[in-house]
């Protein structure tokens, strides 16, 4: 089960890490077109996807519609910037929600015709129109919460507020603000300070400054926090649901906690690129990847957490995935439009006040 569980961590890690130093980040085509009689569909997606999507997603779609899928691979940051700069023009692009919102704001995506994508109606509400009804749905979802080593903690952790407990000084690892999930600690700090960050950034940063006294490291790569956790330099870390299995490889007792205030949803959206000549085929592919059959196969292989509510899994099949209406409803969403507008300002302030040494 652990071996399977690492599949989901590999794919979404490639999605979430934004740093430029990530190996294999340049977008590249992994296929050549051998049959000129076949229509082609070019999909921009994450590194490592080809092997994990080939069996359940790509091969059956190619066979069903007599088409050829060509992949452009890379991480969110580089693929999105290449699209924005006009360096590539895929038909479809899969991006984490906050990058997708930037794409919408920049006018990079076509508006979808939901009549051509009937499987959207089978999704959990959170996934149907995460960034507006005119744009792509979420084909998979992860949650952002806490992972901790119970061997090193006396009192249970139940709340985001527990991160401020004095006994955790120098024992916490948090995402740096340049990561996809790096904005969540600041939002959590605002909530713990009792303010709306849109109305009072100062108190949010003051509370975050208090928390920074407990932070051993603000990590820039998931591999960094994995090493710190393994070496017991860090007892608690923020992270994604799929990353627990990786942590358990070195500390089998590692536990996941959904804080009582709620974990945050991280969604993978699929959008049609502006100007494509294959919009009809692109909509067919979106409908395909949202289908109950495909979503269940991906969940069973521990590649993706299903957003199609018709997918049914046995309790023994849910390890390593976010599953079920009850769990999905608990996830919190954020205003990515406002966050993207504020991110540059917040990052500059973060680097001066919260993490000036870049630790």
Automatic annotation (TrEMBL):
Keywords: Signal. The keyword Signal applies. One of its GO terms (cellular component) is outer membrane-bounded periplasmic space. One of its GO terms (biological process) is thiamine transport. Residues 1-27 form the signal peptide. This is Spermidine/putrescine-binding periplasmic protein. Pfam families: SBP_bac_6. The keyword Ribosomal protein does not apply. Coiled coil: none annotated. It comes from the Bacteria. One of its GO terms (molecular function) is thiamine binding. InterPro entries: Sperm_putr-bd (IPR001188).
């Amino acid at each position: 089960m652990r071996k399977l569980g690492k599949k989901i961590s590999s794919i979404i890690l490639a999605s979430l890490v934004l740093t430029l130093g990530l190996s294999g980040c340049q977008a590249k085509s992994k296929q050549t077109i051998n049959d000129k009689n076949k229509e082609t569909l070019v999909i921009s997606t994450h590194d490592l996807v080809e092997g994990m999507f080939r069996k359940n997603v790509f091969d059956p779609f190619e066979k069903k519609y007599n088409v050829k899928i060509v992949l452009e691979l890379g991480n969110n940051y580089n693929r999105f910037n290449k699209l924005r700069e006009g360096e590539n023009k895929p038909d479809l692009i899969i991006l984490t929600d906050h990058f997708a919102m930037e794409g919408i704001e920049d006018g990079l995506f076509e508006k979808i015709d939901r009549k051509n994508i009937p499987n959207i109606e089978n999704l959990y509400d959170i996934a149907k129109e995460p960034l507006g009804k005119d744009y792509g749905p979420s084909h998979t979802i992860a949650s952002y919460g806490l992972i901790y080593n119970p061997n090193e903690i006396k009192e249970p952790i139940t709340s985001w507020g527990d991160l401020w407990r004095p006994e955790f000084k120098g024992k916490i690892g948090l995402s740096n603000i340049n990561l996809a999930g790096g904005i969540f600690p600041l939002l959590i700090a605002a909530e713990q300070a009792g303010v709306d960050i849109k109305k009072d950034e100062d108190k949010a940063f003051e509370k975050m400054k208090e928390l920074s006294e407990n932070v051993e490291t603000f990590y820039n790569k998931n591999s960094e926090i994995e090493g710190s956790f393994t070496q017991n330099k860090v007892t608690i870390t923020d992270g994604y649901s799929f990353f627990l299995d990786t942590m358990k490889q070195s500390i089998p007792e590692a536990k996941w906690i959904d804080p009582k205030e709620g974990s945050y949803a991280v969604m993978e959206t699929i959008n049609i690129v502006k100007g494509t000549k294959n919009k009809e085929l692109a909509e067919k592919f979106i409908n395909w990847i949202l289908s109950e059959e495909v979503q269940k196969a991906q969940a069973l292989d521990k590649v993706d957490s299903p957003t199609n509510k018709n997918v049914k899994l046995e309790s023994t099949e849910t390890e390593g995935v976010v599953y079920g209406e009850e769990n999905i409803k608990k996830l919190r969403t954020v205003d990515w439009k406002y966050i993207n507008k504020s991110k540059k300002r917040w990052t500059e302030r973060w680097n001066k006040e919260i993490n000036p040494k870049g630790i």
